[in-house]
Write a structure and sequence with these properties.
Layout lengths: L7 E9 L3 E6 L5 E5 L8 E4 L4 E4 L5 E2 L4 E9 L3 E5 L4
Antiparallel strand pairs: 1-2, 1-7, 2-3, 4-5, 5-6, 7-8
C-alpha cells in the first residue's frame, strides 16, 4: 500500500473506537485506521452505547457497516486513511 498513498478507494467501517475507526477496503483485503483527530470536517464525538461517531456541528454519523470513500493518507507499520470529502 506504500505505493498507493493519495489514491481513493471504497471501503466499509468494520470497527469504531473512541479515537478511531477501522475501515476495510472493498478492492483489496486491507484494513486501515482513520484517526478522528485527522477528520478535519467536524469535531466527532464517540457514543459507546451504539458504537457511533457523530459530528458535533454537521450531525454526520458514522456507524458499523457504513460504506465510504477513503484516501490512503500514510503507510508505516499501519495503514492510515482519511475520509474523502465531497466537493
Amino acid at each position: 500500500m506504500k505505493t498507493k498513498v493519495g489514491e481513493k478507494y471504497k471501503g466499509m467501517v468494520v470497527s469504531i473506537h473512541p479515537k478511531s475507526m477501522i475501515v476495510e477496503l472493498d478492492r483489496f483485503p486491507v484494513t486501515g485506521i482513520i484517526n478522528i483527530t485527522n477528520m478535519k470536517d467536524d469535531f466527532y464525538i464517540y457514543y459507546e452505547n451504539n458504537r457511533t461517531l457523530a459530528g458535533k456541528r454537521s450531525g454526520k454519523v458514522y456507524k458499523l457497516m457504513d460504506e465510504l470513500e477513503v484516501t490512503v493518507a500514510r503507510v508505516d507499520d499501519d495503514i492510515y486513511f482519511q475520509p474523502t470529502l465531497k466537493s
